[in-house]
Amino acid sequence: MKILVTGKEGQVARCLADRAADHPALELVFCAREGTEVRLDLAEPATLRAAVQQVRPDVVLNAAAYTAVDQAEDEPELAMAINGQAPGILADEAAKIGARFIQISTDYVFNGELDRPYLPSDPVNPLGVYGQTKQAGEAAVRAANPDHLIARTAWVYSPYGKNFYKSMLRLAETRDELSVVDDQIGNPTSAFEIADGLLAICDDWAAGGRERLGETIHLVGPEEMTWCGFARKIFAESTATGGPTCHVNAITSAEYPSKAKRPRNSRLRQPN
Ligand SMILES: NC(=O)C1=CN([C@@H]2O[C@H](COP(=O)(O)OP(=O)(O)OC[C@H]3O[C@@H](n4cnc5c(N)ncnc54)[C@H](OP(=O)(O)O)[C@@H]3O)[C@@H](O)[C@H]2O)C=CC1
Ligand SMILES: Cc1cn([C@H]2C[C@H](O)[C@@H](COP(=O)(O)OP(=O)(O)O[C@H]3O[C@@H](C)C(=O)[C@@H](O)[C@H]3O)O2)c(=O)[nH]c1=O
Ligand SMILES: [Mg+2]
């Protein structure tokens, strides 16, 4: 089964590539703005339709996105084109050739006011531009292609790209103290867990199954903690392996001003 993956250097895309060898029934074709045989720019609709027509996959997996949460507040139109509109165009082109569509979405579609982990059925109400654009992307995919899977994840870390885990270790090289917010709680998620979860579903599809088709699921790591707790865990592990460490001060979100407001409660749960 051929899977067209958007993005190549992103965290999830790199982990999908690393895991591909464990899934002999799946052939992954990566496309990005540059450096790939098939060129795809989510901000250029013509390249989306052309990429799907050129590769003619069985599944399109959209692993690329505009992920700069604060910067999105300053360029909402570009973020909306990439996260809100492009997924619908790709899902529509996939539908035209009978291909299924996988969209990755985020905890930031919720406002975080609920006092329990969010279920897929809970209403969305994003606080910032990034979340609004990802919500629009979800809606566009549902409307364009009934054979979709929307997998919401959160707080992604990996050895690749930019993420909180790598930022903490990098900052610790030059600092012996950091202040990290302790009033936002969520589920840190390894990009490898996301890759494994999505590829297991694709294996089912390749074998003729319809697992999770038409569903919105929550695919996150098993533990819940605050960003401050996550930072302390990162340094505890780093210390144990002789890596850099750092003292972590707990602060409130009000003490860490940022352009975009983040949800207080980002926890996601999958009911079954
Ligand atoms: N990171 C996180 O904490 C979370 C991420 N998600 C979602 O998971 C998915 C994967 O995220 P993650 O792997 O962390 O993302 P990354 O930020 O690591 O990578 C994003 C990728 O998207 C590509 N991209 C950005 N703009 C375009 C464009 N116009 N055309 C083509 N490609 C583009 C980037 O390419 P380039 O290298 O060229 O810039 C990059 O490869 C996304 O849908 C994201 O919204 C959900 C929850 C949490
Ligand atoms: C670097 C740093 C961050 N923080 C805070 C800011 C923020 O609230 C939190 C995490 O920082 P980040 O920059 O990783 O936050 P952010 O980029 O908002 O992370 C989000 O990215 C998008 C793509 C998602 O979809 C979300 O699930 C989530 O992972 O930690 C500190 O308190 N101290 C620090 O020194
Ligand atoms: Mg960030």
From TrEMBL:
Per UniProt, the cofactor note for this protein states: Binds 1 Mg(2+) ion per monomer.
The EC number on file is: 1.1.1.133
* UniProt keyword list: NADP, Oxidoreductase
What highest taxon heads this organism's lineage?
A: Bacteria
Q: Which reaction does it catalyse?
A: dTDP-beta-L-rhamnose + NADP(+) = dTDP-4-dehydro-beta-L-rhamnose + NADPH + H(+)
Give the cofactors, semicolon-separated: Mg(2+)
What the entry lists under Pfam families is as follows: RmlD_sub_bind
GO molecular function annotation: dTDP-4-dehydrorhamnose reductase activity
The UniProt entry, under InterPro entries, shows:
dTDP_dehydrorham_reduct, NAD(P)-bd_dom_sf, RmlD-like-bd
Pathway the protein contributes to: Carbohydrate biosynthesis; dTDP-L-rhamnose biosynthesis
Record-annotated RmlD-like substrate binding domain positions: 1-270
Q: Describe the function of this protein.
A: Catalyzes the reduction of dTDP-6-deoxy-L-lyxo-4-hexulose to yield dTDP-L-rhamnose.
| Family label | Belongs to the dTDP-4-dehydrorhamnose reductase family.
Record NCBIfam families: rmlD (TIGR01214)
* Family annotation (PANTHER family): DTDP-4-DEHYDRORHAMNOSE REDUCTASE, METHIONINE ADENOSYLTRANSFERASE 2 SUBUNIT BETA
Q: What protein name does the entry list?
A: dTDP-4-dehydrorhamnose reductase
> Which source organism?
Roseibium limicola
Q: What is the lineage of its organism?
A: Bacteria, Pseudomonadati, Pseudomonadota, Alphaproteobacteria, Hyphomicrobiales
